[in-house]
Amino acid sequence: MEGLRRGLSRWKRYHIKVHLADEALLLPLTVRPRDTLSDLRAQLVGQGVSSWKRTFYYNARRLDDHQTVRDVHLQDGSVLLLVSDPR
């Protein structure tokens, strides 16, 4: 049964949004549980949005690029905040 659940998770998709604070935009993305935040950055670049020198936040926590959607507990309808690094 556990193998079936793991197999089904590869087909699971979440519809999330990324809030670009600097431009006041809210962009929709479709992601899988195994996608990393680097994968999300690549999707944003595909939509013409640069994420260079920007950081993702979710529930007031800073996220690292190696973390997966599952690691940070994103669900359908979640909103990530993408802000410029203060450095």
From TrEMBL:
One cellular component (GO) term of this entry: cytoplasm
Write down the InterPro entries for this protein, in alphabetical order: Ubiquitin-like_dom (IPR000626), Ubiquitin-like_domsf (IPR029071)
Q: Which PROSITE patterns match?
A: UBIQUITIN_2
A GO BP annotation? positive regulation of wound healing
- Superkingdom of this entry's organism? Eukaryota
According to the entry, every stretch annotated as the Ubiquitin-like domain falls at 14-87
Q: Spell out the protein name for this chain.
A: TINCR ubiquitin domain containing
